[in-house]
Specification:
This protein is α/β, with parallel strands linked by helices and about 325 residues long. The protein has three domains: about 100 residues, YqgF/RNase H-like domain (Nucleotidyltransferase, domain 5, 2-Layer Sandwich); about 100 residues; about 70 residues, no CATH class. Helix content is about 50%, strand content about 10%. The chain has eleven helices and seven strands. Strands 3-2-1-4-5 form a five-stranded mixed sheet, sandwiched between helices. The radius of gyration is 26 Å and the shape is elongated.
Amino acid sequence: MNATAALPIVGVDLAKSVFQLAVADGCWKVVALHRLTRTQFERWFVNRAVGLVVMEACGSAHHWARWLKGLGIEVRLLPAAYLRAYVKRNKTDAADACALLEAARCAEIVPVRVKSIEQQALQGLHRTRSLWMGTRTSRINALRGFCREFGIVIAQGSRLGVEQIGRTLADPHAAVPTLIRGTMALLVEEIRLLEVRIAQLERELTALVRTSPACTTLLSIPGVGLLTATAMVAATSGEVSHFRDARHFASWFGLTPKEHSSANTRHLGRISQARGPLPAHAAHPRRSLSTTCSKRGSACGQDRRWPTTMGIGR
């Protein structure tokens, strides 16, 4: 920062087609505000020397961060959750851009690391799988509800349930009315198509694991599987040395409970899944390891029996 102290510092409020800039001098005092289109935004940075750009870690932020770094400009992405406190009075694009400059001066706010194109592509695969899994679950639940309305009880489990529904629809003597049979058959066909797509996506992830040393290392951890390893690499690129310690990493990962404490009273709530699929995947290794150790007992090994002694996964 010392080498670029004389260069302007720019806070950028990103949008799809309109970009609000707050330009500050070396003393962090706002000296100019600009509202630019996408083309003007690109031209503005190409034609100027800028020391630091501060942006909110939101949609398209990583793309612009990579582009600005390609111009030799330092970029700092700040977590969106911490910026609201710095917005003065009403929320406007200009106020948001100025708030970014104020938040950037806070040493307690840890910037978000800029993701590579490969990381974002891998995250896209995970999000696509989550969407497909959610759609599949909603279709199965809808079919179960339809069958229940006609007095047909479907077995537990998605695989057994879909198979039983398929057999029921194929039986001309079943209690399902003719009016809805065709629609239900389309839902079953959609579920099977989604299962094929999910399996294909998981094969792509498996092929990626074979060429990724970081994924290979993560898979050596007891309980960590394909989805957890690839999700972790997508989020961190396999590099976690920038975390201060293990507790800092666990907090970022989403493995710390929500806390509401005061004085001598401490109240720890549930672990949140606000960070998307990562905390959900993180629960699977603990649950898997706990189940394995419960079944194998002493054969599991002392270093792997700690989840059962702590009650994890129960």
